[in-house]
Amino acid sequence: MSALRAELLQTGNDLIKAGRIEINAPAIAVFDILANPHRHPDFDGSKTVQRSLSGPTRLYLGARFGMQMRIKIPYLITNTCVEFEENRLVAWRHFSHHIWRYELAELGPTRTQVTEYFDGRPARSQYWLRKINAYSNNQKAILKTLVRLKELSESENG
Description:
Blueprint: E1 7-9, E2 16-23, H1 27-34, H2 40-43, E3 49-54, E4 64-71, E5 73-85, E6 89-93, E7 99-108, E8 111-119, H3 126-131, H4 134-156
């Protein structure tokens, strides 16, 4: 079994935070979890995603889905899937336009490498992201999310 820690990645860009982990489960199984917005509260390491409110059970390019969130106070957010490649890549954004991205690489029939990114480059307000400490907070949340995704994927495919 691989370590129960995610690796912090240096992206060379202060506006992109990333982490990586190896999961002992097939890429299709891991992707099935990521591509189902109703599962997002199950693996969210930030603990801000409270529950899914709307959307398909499987994302696709252009799919919209709503979430109940909480950062100090509860709020609702609608996300749009902006990148999608079956069993390899899924990404979404909301009105602020920063992106959460997951890239999967098959390491074997039952091993998958998952890299998660928080990409602030397309954000509408760098000032706001810095004011709420989004880059530091998301870097920490990525590592926790990847560990939770690993635990969930391995328990369901073990």
